[in-house]
């Protein structure tokens, strides 16, 4: 190689590239690998390594360049594929691909267990690739099902594998306790086991169940065997305590235990100010009990309401509100006055007042009280009397053949009374007395009519013979 002067190419100086590069997927052809000198522009050939293949028509080459480096080797060699493995009743899993160098894992379907290795690698054999392990999935077998006393298997004389079932039945007079059917399953180690123990054939008899204050809704009869059920309900006025359905179990007892029907009790009968019970009752009553009431004196039944009170299931009494209402007295009146009251119902007290110029005569109040089968006022209605100024009457009138007991010139005030009487031989006609009253102008006058004194009949008969004798003497 010359130094200094003009530059010359590597080819002109006779320089050589280093040995061709090594790549993962291919190797130098045997022809080119043995060379010791690689001048510029020389091209070497590559062939795919075992486990790889060129899937194109291009050649794998590398050329020594002017700068004494090799051109890149094209990655035309691809890993060969082992393809999907055949594993009936199972499957395989992989994380990359199925090409040379890949690893897969095997799993079996439910009911099968893997025989062989659980994984395989795509490896080279000669110039080809294959999976280095090919396990298979075997159906999980179970041992013969257990036999039972006083019963037998149905179709039990065969081989059993996972998922197959066997059914038991009991001889006559025996009850099958447990599951009648068990099936072939698998444990955590993929060994075949039966899903449960074989049932038993037993003689089961439960007593006839009876619940006080209750009755059966289903399961009627007197003999009960395994798994027979009975349903109960309580009589009215009672609450079920426990389960309403019981089952005859293998130990000859009822499960859950027989229920109880507890009485639902309301407390003492309610009291009302307006009504009373028609009959006596105790301190408690069963739910559903109906009590009848009657209205107390002074009250009457309200329209559309019931006087029957019922004990409810929540231990309370149900009643229509105010089913008896107070009776009403007839409204009182007072002339020249007023009646003061909010209403005229039983036990109401009314007050009477008079208008100005009048004075109340009688009781100033009255109360609506019981009277017979109804109500009435406990006092007669008062009246309002006119208040008059000082009134004086003149001397009482005189009458023929009679006198009065008034003093002449005396003071005869309003209301004064004088009495008349007749002289002998005369009879009083009319009222024997008159009183001092007022006229429309509030002046004092004597009441009318004034009585009269008339000759009596016996006096007239005694004088007639005398008159007749005098008449004859004059003749």
According to CATH, what is the topology of the largest domain?
A: Complement Module, domain 1
Largest sheet: 4 strands, antiparallel
Helicity, in percent? under 10%
On the 0-100 scale, what is the average pLDDT? 90
Number of strands: 47
Please give the count of helices. Answer: 3
* Residue fraction in strands: 35-45%
Q: What is the rounded distance between the termini?
A: 234 Å
Structural category is mainly beta
Protein name: Sushi domain-containing protein
Keywords: Disulfide bond, Repeat, Signal, Sushi
InterPro entries: SEZ6_CSMD_C4BPB_Regulators, Sushi/SCR/CCP_sf, Sushi_SCR_CCP_dom
Organism: Athene cunicularia (Burrowing owl)
What does the model show?
- Helices cover 5% and strands 39% of the residues.
- The protein is mostly beta strands and 475 residues long.
- The protein has 7 domains: 10-79, Complement Module, domain 1, CATH 2.10.70.10; 90-139, Complement Module, domain 1; 141-202, Complement Module, domain 1, CATH 2.10.70; 214-263, Complement Module, domain 1; 265-324, Ribbon (Complement Module, domain 1), CATH 2.10.70; 337-386, Complement Module, domain 1, CATH 2.10.70.10; 392-458, Ribbon (Complement Module, domain 1).
- It has a 4-stranded antiparallel sheet, with no helix packed on it. The chain has a 4-stranded antiparallel sheet with strand order 13-15-17-18, with no helix packed on it.
- The termini are far apart.
- The relative contact order is 0.05.
- Keywords: Disulfide bond, Repeat, Signal, Sushi.
């Amino acid at each position: 190689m010359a130094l200094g002067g003009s530059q010359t190419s590597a080819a002109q100086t006779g320089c050589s590239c280093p040995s061709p590069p090594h790549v993962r997927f291919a190797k130098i052809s045997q022809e080119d690998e043995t060379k010791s000198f690689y001048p510029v522009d020389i091209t070497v050939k590559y062939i795919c390594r075992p486990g790889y293949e060129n899937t194109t028509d291009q050649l794998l080459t590398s050329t020594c360049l002017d700068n004494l480096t090799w051109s890149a080797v094209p990655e035309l060699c691809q890993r060969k594929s082992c393809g999907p493995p055949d594993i009936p009743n199972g499957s395989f899993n992989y994380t990359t691909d199925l090409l040379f160098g890949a690893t897969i894992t095997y799993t079996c379907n439910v009911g099968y267990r893997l025989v062989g290795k659980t994984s395989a690698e795509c490896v080279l054999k000669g110039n080809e690739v294959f999976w280095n392990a090919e396990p298979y999935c075997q159906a999980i077998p179970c041992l013969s099902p257990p036999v039972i006393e006083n019963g037998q298997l149905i179709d039990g004389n065969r081989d059993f594998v996972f998922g197959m079932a066997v059914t038991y039945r009991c001889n006559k007079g025996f009850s099958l306790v447990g599951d009648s059917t068990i099936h072939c399953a698998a444990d955590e180690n993929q060994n075949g086991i039966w899903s449960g123990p074989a049932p038993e054939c037993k003689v089961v008899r439960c007593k006839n169940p009876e619940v006080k204050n209750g009755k059966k809704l289903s399961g009627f009869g007197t003999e009960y065997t395994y798994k027979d059920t009975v349903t109960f309900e309580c009589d009215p006025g009672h609450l079920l305590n426990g389960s309403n359905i019981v089952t005859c179990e293998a130990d000859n007892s009822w499960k859950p235990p027989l229920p109880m029907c507890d009485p639902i009790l309301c407390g003492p009968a309610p009291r009302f100010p307006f009504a009373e019970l028609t009959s006596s009752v105790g301190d408690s009553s069963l739910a559903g009990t109906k009590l009848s009431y009657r209205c107390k004196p002074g009250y009457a039944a309200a329209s559309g309401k019931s006087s029957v009170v019922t004990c409810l299931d929540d231990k309370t009494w149900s009643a229509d509100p105010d089913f008896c209402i107070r009776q009403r007295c007839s409204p009182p009146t007072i002339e020249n006055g007023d009646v003061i009251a909010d209403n005229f119902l039983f036990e109401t007290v009314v007050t009477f007042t008079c208008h100005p110029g009048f004075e109340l005569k009688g009781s100033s109040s009255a109360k609506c009280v019981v009277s017979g089968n109804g109500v009435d006022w406990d006092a007669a209605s008062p009246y309002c009397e006119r208040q008059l100024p000082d009134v004086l009457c003149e001397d009482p009138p005189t009458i023929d053949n009679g006198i009065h007991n008034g003093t002449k010139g005396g003071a005869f005030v309003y209301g004064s009374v004088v009495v008349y009487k007749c002289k002998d031989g005369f009879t009083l006609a009319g009222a024997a007395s008159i009183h001092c009253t007022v006229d429309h102008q509030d002046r004092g006058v004597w009441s009318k009519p004034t009585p009269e004194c008339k000759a009596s009949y016996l006096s007239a008969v005694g004088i007639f013979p005398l008159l007749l004798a005098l008449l004859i003497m004059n003749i």
